[in-house]
Design a protein that fits this description.
It contains 16 helices and three strands. The protein starts with 18 loop residues before the first strand and ends in a 21-residue tail after the last helix. The mean pLDDT is about 95. It is globular. The chain folds into two domains: about 200 residues, Citrate Synthase, domain 1 (Orthogonal Bundle), CATH 1.10.580; about 100 residues, Cytochrome p450-Terp, domain 2. Helix 11 packs across helix 15. The chain is an all-alpha fold.
């Protein structure tokens, strides 16, 4: 029996038309479009349309998630009760999605036609920011803010989470982050969602499985740790010594290094541009600290190219936009839920359950069980 490489690295397990990552080139795309350019030039709703309907507007009718963000009263009450009980917004998100799917009769995808699957995908992804923002407000002891169907998805998420309307620049910067993180190849959460989808389970169940994978520290990361690192370093002149001390202690430098990219992470490039558009002292310090850290890492491992990953500049953008740090990682699920739902639909079209084998390496069987 052939055995797959550890972590399935380099092994293609499915075909997809949704996009891919070319790490050696520092390039990724959604369908046939450069994803970095989509983040620079298009709205989240446009990219949502591309992934779900195959074309950008106006070639495909544009998706409008605004009217779909509101929760039924019964589900809102469950979300509020869960938020009062648990600290982690990702726990509340999972409970809310499962409750909504069941409440609205969104059954197994095996029994759903394409129109119903599209409706499931839109509805479930649309409520992700509502559930997360509602959790955050409840934990603060503040009243939840109802969604505004007239606002864009990014702007309304910021408004619901912070309680005030964001500036157009802040809303656009967060939207660029969301567009840049809609999809990224067969990462652990996407793969997990597709495995569950292959069983014919309901779409909410597949999304919740993907979210579970995302919560793992080795996958979802922690942009909030990056902004804490920038604060702790303070000034670029202190960065080199700070990093060398951490490396000598065997610690990981947050926001640097990626499992796929050997050239510059294009998502980080887009978000650096977005941060520079917002401006301010934090951006200037972050840019100086980034260069100092990259210099030390180049000395530390001269035979490897360690690049800035998406989390470093994402942390700066989310901080400047006014999002609370506890919401940095959950915000990733606002965009990735769009990608996950598209993958669930694509996997459903395969029509075959994912069922790999394992190579047994234990003791030789056949030992007597008699006493």
């Amino acid at each position: 029996m052939d055995i797959a490489p550890p972590g399935l690295k380099g092994l293609a397990v499915a075909d997809t038309a949704l996009g891919s990552v070319r790490g050696e080139e520092g390039f990724f795309h959604y369908r046939q479009h450069d994803a970095s350019e989509l983040a620079r030039q298009r709205s989240l709703e446009d990219v949502w349309t591309l992934q779900l309907r195959g074309h950008l507007p106006p070639a495909a009718a544009a998706i409008d998630p605004g009217p779909l963000r509101a929760l039924p009263e019964a589900v809102a009450e469950l979300v509020d009760a869960t938020a009062a009980l648990v600290r982690d917004p990702m726990v509340t998100l999972r409970a809310g999605l499962l409750a909504l799917g069941d409440h609205e009769g969104r059954g197994p995808i095996l029994d759903r036609d394409r129109a119903q699957l599209d409706d499931d995908a839109l509805r479930l992804a649309a409520v992700v920011p509502t559930i997360l923002a509602r959790h955050h407000r409840i934990r603060l002891g503040a009243a939840p803010v109802a969604p505004d169907p007239e606002l864009g998805h990014a702007a309304d998420y910021l408004r619901m989470a912070t309680g005030s309307a964001p500036s157009p620049d802040a809303a656009r910067a967060v939207e660029q982050y969301l567009v840049a993180t809609v999809d990224h190849g067969f990462n652990a959460s996407t793969f997990t969602g597709r495995v569950v989808a292959s069983t014919g389970a309901d779409m909410a169940g597949a999304l919740v499985a993907a979210i579970g994978a995302l919560t793992g520290p080795l996958h979802g990361g922690a942009p909030s740790r990056c902004i804490q690192m920038i604060e702790e370093i303070g000034e670029p002149a202190r960065a080199a010594d700070w990093v060398r001390n951490r490396l000598d202690n065997g610690e990981k430098i947050m926001g640097f290094g990626h499992a796929v990219y050997r050239a510059e992470d294009p998502r980080g490039v887009v978000l650096r541009e977005a941060a520079e558009g917002l401006g301010g002292d934090l951006v200037a310090r972050a840019a100086g600290i980034e260069q100092e850290i990259l210099g030390v890492l180049a000395e530390w491992k001269p035979d490897q190219r360690i690049v800035t990953n998406v989390e470093f500049w994402a942390s700066v953008v989310l901080e400047l936009a006014g999002l609370p740090r506890a919401m940095f990682t959950p915000t990733f699920s606002v965009s990735r839920s769009v990608g996950w739902t598209a993958h669930v639909i694509e996997q459903h079209g395969v029509g075959k359950i994912m069922r790999p084998s394992a190579r047994y390496v234990g003791p030789v069987p056949g030992v007597s069980v008699r006493t």
